[in-house]
Specification:
It is a single chain. Helix 2 (about 25-35) packs across helix 4. The protein contains 4 helices and 18 strands. It is an alpha+beta fold and about 270 residues long. Strands 1-2-3-14-13-15-11-12 form an 8-stranded antiparallel beta sheet. Strand 13 and strand 14 form a beta hairpin. The chain has one domain (about 1-270).
Protein backbone atom coordinates (compact mmCIF):
# COMPACT_ATOMS: atom_id res chain seq x y z
CA UNK A 1 0.00 0.00 0.00
CA UNK A 2 2.83 2.42 0.82
CA UNK A 3 4.42 1.75 -2.55
CA UNK A 4 1.17 2.52 -4.34
CA UNK A 5 0.83 5.84 -2.56
CA UNK A 6 4.40 6.79 -3.41
CA UNK A 7 3.75 5.90 -7.04
CA UNK A 8 0.69 8.15 -7.14
CA UNK A 9 2.67 11.00 -5.56
CA UNK A 10 5.47 10.62 -8.11
CA UNK A 11 2.90 10.65 -10.90
CA UNK A 12 1.40 13.89 -9.60
CA UNK A 13 4.82 15.57 -9.47
CA UNK A 14 5.56 14.46 -13.03
CA UNK A 15 2.28 15.88 -14.28
CA UNK A 16 2.83 19.21 -12.55
CA UNK A 17 6.29 19.32 -14.14
CA UNK A 18 4.75 18.91 -17.57
CA UNK A 19 6.15 15.43 -18.20
CA UNK A 20 4.06 13.41 -20.60
CA UNK A 21 3.15 10.02 -19.13
CA UNK A 22 1.43 7.14 -20.92
CA UNK A 23 -0.73 6.22 -17.95
CA UNK A 24 -3.92 7.76 -19.25
CA UNK A 25 -4.64 5.30 -22.04
CA UNK A 26 -8.07 3.74 -21.87
CA UNK A 27 -8.49 0.20 -20.57
CA UNK A 28 -9.60 -0.77 -24.07
CA UNK A 29 -6.42 0.53 -25.70
CA UNK A 30 -4.27 -1.27 -23.15
CA UNK A 31 -6.20 -4.49 -23.78
CA UNK A 32 -5.62 -4.02 -27.52
CA UNK A 33 -1.90 -3.52 -26.94
CA UNK A 34 -1.73 -6.66 -24.84
CA UNK A 35 -3.44 -8.69 -27.53
CA UNK A 36 -0.98 -7.45 -30.16
CA UNK A 37 2.13 -8.04 -28.04
CA UNK A 38 1.23 -11.50 -26.71
CA UNK A 39 2.36 -14.59 -28.62
CA UNK A 40 -0.21 -15.97 -31.14
CA UNK A 41 -0.69 -19.16 -29.13
CA UNK A 42 -0.63 -18.21 -25.45
CA UNK A 43 -2.19 -21.57 -24.51
CA UNK A 44 0.92 -23.36 -25.76
CA UNK A 45 3.05 -21.19 -23.47
CA UNK A 46 1.62 -22.89 -20.35
CA UNK A 47 3.96 -25.66 -19.14
CA UNK A 48 3.26 -28.43 -16.62
CA UNK A 49 5.46 -28.02 -13.55
CA UNK A 50 3.70 -30.39 -11.13
CA UNK A 51 0.61 -32.63 -11.16
CA UNK A 52 -2.33 -30.33 -11.89
CA UNK A 53 -0.20 -27.15 -11.95
CA UNK A 54 0.94 -25.15 -15.00
CA UNK A 55 3.22 -22.13 -15.33
CA UNK A 56 3.62 -19.39 -17.89
CA UNK A 57 6.42 -16.78 -18.00
CA UNK A 58 6.62 -13.87 -20.41
CA UNK A 59 7.13 -10.14 -20.75
CA UNK A 60 3.70 -8.51 -20.75
CA UNK A 61 2.93 -5.14 -22.27
CA UNK A 62 2.66 -2.19 -19.95
CA UNK A 63 1.93 1.42 -20.87
CA UNK A 64 5.24 2.31 -22.46
CA UNK A 65 7.19 -0.92 -22.01
CA UNK A 66 7.07 -4.52 -20.81
CA UNK A 67 7.12 -6.21 -17.40
CA UNK A 68 8.17 -9.76 -16.49
CA UNK A 69 5.13 -11.80 -15.41
CA UNK A 70 5.01 -15.28 -13.86
CA UNK A 71 1.61 -16.99 -13.69
CA UNK A 72 0.40 -20.33 -12.34
CA UNK A 73 -2.94 -22.02 -12.94
CA UNK A 74 -4.52 -24.95 -11.17
CA UNK A 75 -7.74 -26.38 -9.78
CA UNK A 76 -9.48 -24.68 -6.82
CA UNK A 77 -8.82 -27.75 -4.67
CA UNK A 78 -5.09 -27.00 -4.72
CA UNK A 79 -5.46 -23.46 -3.34
CA UNK A 80 -4.83 -22.84 0.35
CA UNK A 81 -4.62 -19.68 2.44
CA UNK A 82 -1.79 -19.80 4.97
CA UNK A 83 -1.48 -17.51 8.00
CA UNK A 84 -0.30 -17.49 11.59
CA UNK A 85 3.31 -16.42 11.01
CA UNK A 86 5.29 -13.69 9.27
CA UNK A 87 7.44 -15.28 6.59
CA UNK A 88 8.75 -14.71 3.10
CA UNK A 89 7.30 -16.71 0.20
CA UNK A 90 10.06 -19.32 0.25
CA UNK A 91 9.51 -19.99 3.96
CA UNK A 92 5.72 -20.18 3.46
CA UNK A 93 6.24 -22.72 0.67
CA UNK A 94 8.62 -24.81 2.77
CA UNK A 95 6.39 -24.64 5.85
CA UNK A 96 3.38 -25.81 3.84
CA UNK A 97 5.24 -28.43 1.82
CA UNK A 98 3.72 -26.78 -1.25
CA UNK A 99 4.59 -26.45 -4.92
CA UNK A 100 4.34 -22.66 -4.77
CA UNK A 101 3.59 -19.76 -2.46
CA UNK A 102 3.02 -16.06 -3.07
CA UNK A 103 2.10 -13.14 -0.86
CA UNK A 104 -1.49 -12.61 0.21
CA UNK A 105 -3.45 -9.51 1.20
CA UNK A 106 -2.93 -6.20 2.96
CA UNK A 107 -1.77 -5.92 6.58
CA UNK A 108 -1.36 -3.14 9.14
CA UNK A 109 1.93 -1.76 10.57
CA UNK A 110 1.84 -4.37 13.36
CA UNK A 111 1.72 -7.21 10.81
CA UNK A 112 -1.93 -8.06 11.35
CA UNK A 113 -3.81 -9.15 8.23
CA UNK A 114 -6.50 -6.72 7.06
CA UNK A 115 -9.70 -8.30 5.84
CA UNK A 116 -11.21 -11.75 5.72
CA UNK A 117 -8.97 -14.81 5.85
CA UNK A 118 -10.39 -18.33 5.91
CA UNK A 119 -8.13 -21.38 5.95
CA UNK A 120 -9.45 -24.96 5.85
CA UNK A 121 -12.90 -23.72 6.80
CA UNK A 122 -11.71 -21.73 9.83
CA UNK A 123 -12.06 -17.95 9.95
CA UNK A 124 -8.73 -16.41 10.93
CA UNK A 125 -9.62 -12.72 10.42
CA UNK A 126 -13.03 -11.04 10.02
CA UNK A 127 -14.51 -9.43 6.92
CA UNK A 128 -13.53 -5.77 6.58
CA UNK A 129 -15.99 -3.09 5.43
CA UNK A 130 -14.07 -1.94 2.36
CA UNK A 131 -14.59 -1.50 -1.37
CA UNK A 132 -12.59 -4.65 -2.05
CA UNK A 133 -13.32 -8.16 -3.22
CA UNK A 134 -13.19 -11.65 -1.76
CA UNK A 135 -11.63 -14.65 -3.45
CA UNK A 136 -13.17 -17.82 -2.07
CA UNK A 137 -13.26 -21.56 -2.59
CA UNK A 138 -16.51 -23.22 -1.66
CA UNK A 139 -16.78 -26.99 -1.27
CA UNK A 140 -18.88 -28.58 -4.02
CA UNK A 141 -22.19 -30.15 -3.06
CA UNK A 142 -22.57 -33.87 -3.09
CA UNK A 143 -23.35 -35.10 -6.59
CA UNK A 144 -22.08 -31.98 -8.36
CA UNK A 145 -19.56 -32.39 -11.15
CA UNK A 146 -16.98 -30.32 -9.26
CA UNK A 147 -17.77 -31.69 -5.81
CA UNK A 148 -14.28 -33.14 -5.42
CA UNK A 149 -12.46 -29.95 -6.42
CA UNK A 150 -14.72 -27.22 -5.08
CA UNK A 151 -15.63 -24.02 -6.86
CA UNK A 152 -13.75 -20.73 -6.83
CA UNK A 153 -15.39 -17.31 -7.06
CA UNK A 154 -14.56 -13.64 -6.60
CA UNK A 155 -17.29 -11.40 -5.21
CA UNK A 156 -17.49 -7.82 -3.98
CA UNK A 157 -17.25 -7.42 -0.21
CA UNK A 158 -20.94 -6.44 0.01
CA UNK A 159 -21.96 -9.65 -1.79
CA UNK A 160 -20.15 -11.97 0.61
CA UNK A 161 -23.09 -13.09 2.73
CA UNK A 162 -22.15 -16.39 4.33
CA UNK A 163 -19.10 -18.50 5.11
CA UNK A 164 -21.14 -21.68 4.88
CA UNK A 165 -19.18 -24.20 2.84
CA UNK A 166 -16.24 -21.82 2.31
CA UNK A 167 -12.95 -23.63 2.80
CA UNK A 168 -10.50 -20.90 1.75
CA UNK A 169 -10.93 -17.13 1.38
CA UNK A 170 -8.89 -13.95 1.18
CA UNK A 171 -10.14 -10.35 1.00
CA UNK A 172 -8.16 -7.64 -0.77
CA UNK A 173 -8.57 -5.14 -3.57
CA UNK A 174 -9.33 -3.60 -5.84
CA UNK A 175 -11.10 -6.04 -8.12
CA UNK A 176 -9.41 -6.07 -11.50
CA UNK A 177 -11.86 -7.91 -13.76
CA UNK A 178 -15.62 -8.42 -13.33
CA UNK A 179 -17.47 -10.79 -15.65
CA UNK A 180 -14.69 -10.63 -18.23
CA UNK A 181 -14.32 -6.85 -18.30
CA UNK A 182 -11.29 -5.00 -16.88
CA UNK A 183 -12.26 -2.23 -14.49
CA UNK A 184 -11.13 1.38 -14.96
CA UNK A 185 -8.55 1.95 -12.24
CA UNK A 186 -6.25 4.76 -11.16
CA UNK A 187 -2.99 5.20 -13.11
CA UNK A 188 -0.71 3.93 -10.34
CA UNK A 189 2.47 1.90 -10.86
CA UNK A 190 3.90 -0.82 -8.59
CA UNK A 191 4.96 -4.45 -8.56
CA UNK A 192 1.81 -6.57 -8.58
CA UNK A 193 0.30 -9.78 -7.24
CA UNK A 194 -3.16 -11.06 -8.14
CA UNK A 195 -5.54 -14.01 -8.27
CA UNK A 196 -8.26 -14.81 -10.77
CA UNK A 197 -10.85 -17.35 -11.82
CA UNK A 198 -11.11 -18.49 -15.43
CA UNK A 199 -14.33 -19.33 -17.24
CA UNK A 200 -13.47 -23.03 -16.99
CA UNK A 201 -13.27 -22.75 -13.19
CA UNK A 202 -9.50 -22.99 -12.83
CA UNK A 203 -7.64 -20.53 -10.62
CA UNK A 204 -4.76 -18.33 -11.81
CA UNK A 205 -2.25 -16.56 -9.59
CA UNK A 206 0.37 -14.20 -10.98
CA UNK A 207 3.03 -11.67 -10.07
CA UNK A 208 4.44 -8.79 -12.09
CA UNK A 209 8.11 -8.50 -11.16
CA UNK A 210 8.39 -4.83 -12.04
CA UNK A 211 6.34 -1.65 -11.80
CA UNK A 212 3.11 -2.07 -13.78
CA UNK A 213 0.14 0.26 -14.04
CA UNK A 214 -3.19 -0.79 -12.56
CA UNK A 215 -4.82 -0.36 -15.98
CA UNK A 216 -2.36 -2.63 -17.76
CA UNK A 217 -2.54 -5.13 -14.87
CA UNK A 218 -6.34 -5.32 -15.09
CA UNK A 219 -6.25 -5.59 -18.88
CA UNK A 220 -3.74 -8.44 -18.65
CA UNK A 221 -6.11 -10.48 -16.48
CA UNK A 222 -8.98 -10.03 -18.93
CA UNK A 223 -7.12 -10.47 -22.23
CA UNK A 224 -7.66 -13.79 -24.03
CA UNK A 225 -3.96 -13.88 -24.86
CA UNK A 226 -3.17 -12.77 -21.33
CA UNK A 227 -4.53 -14.55 -18.26
CA UNK A 228 -8.05 -14.86 -19.70
CA UNK A 229 -9.96 -14.68 -16.41
CA UNK A 230 -13.67 -14.05 -15.92
CA UNK A 231 -12.96 -12.36 -12.58
CA UNK A 232 -9.73 -11.21 -10.97
CA UNK A 233 -8.65 -9.60 -7.71
CA UNK A 234 -5.59 -7.55 -6.84
CA UNK A 235 -3.55 -8.76 -3.86
CA UNK A 236 -0.95 -6.77 -1.93
CA UNK A 237 1.85 -5.45 -4.13
CA UNK A 238 4.92 -3.23 -4.09
CA UNK A 239 7.43 -4.56 -1.57
CA UNK A 240 5.04 -7.34 -0.56
CA UNK A 241 5.02 -8.94 -4.03
CA UNK A 242 6.91 -12.25 -3.94
CA UNK A 243 6.70 -15.83 -5.20
CA UNK A 244 8.51 -19.08 -4.52
CA UNK A 245 8.12 -22.14 -6.76
CA UNK A 246 9.70 -25.58 -6.83
CA UNK A 247 8.66 -27.79 -9.78
CA UNK A 248 8.00 -31.48 -9.24
CA UNK A 249 11.03 -33.73 -9.62
CA UNK A 250 9.57 -35.30 -12.76
CA UNK A 251 9.82 -31.99 -14.62
CA UNK A 252 12.82 -30.52 -12.81
CA UNK A 253 14.96 -30.75 -15.95
CA UNK A 254 12.56 -28.69 -18.06
CA UNK A 255 11.16 -26.27 -15.45
CA UNK A 256 13.41 -24.23 -13.21
CA UNK A 257 12.62 -23.00 -9.68
CA UNK A 258 11.29 -19.46 -9.37
CA UNK A 259 12.30 -17.11 -6.56
CA UNK A 260 10.90 -13.59 -6.73
CA UNK A 261 11.83 -11.86 -3.52
CA UNK A 262 9.92 -9.19 -1.66
CA UNK A 263 11.16 -6.32 0.48
CA UNK A 264 9.74 -7.83 3.68
CA UNK A 265 8.04 -10.99 5.00
CA UNK A 266 4.24 -11.20 4.94
CA UNK A 267 1.65 -12.46 7.49
CA UNK A 268 -0.35 -14.56 5.03
CA UNK A 269 0.15 -16.29 1.71
CA UNK A 270 -1.66 -18.01 -1.13
CA UNK A 271 -0.41 -21.59 -1.40
CA UNK A 272 -0.62 -24.08 -4.29
CA UNK A 273 -0.43 -27.63 -3.01
Amino acid sequence: MVVLLLGAAALGLALRAGVSLPGFATAGSVLHALSRSSPPSSEAAWKHIAPGVEMRRWNAADEGGTVAVVALRTAPSRIRIAAGATLDAAAWRQKSGAVAALNGGFFDPTGRSLGLRVARGRRLHPLRAADWGVFLVRAGRSGEKRASSGQARIVHTRDFKSRRGVTEAIQCGPRLVVNGRPLRLKPQWARRTGIGVRRDGRVVVAVADGAMSFRAWAALWAARDGLNCRDALNLDGGGSTQMSLRPARAVARTAQPVEIGGAWPVPDAVIIQ
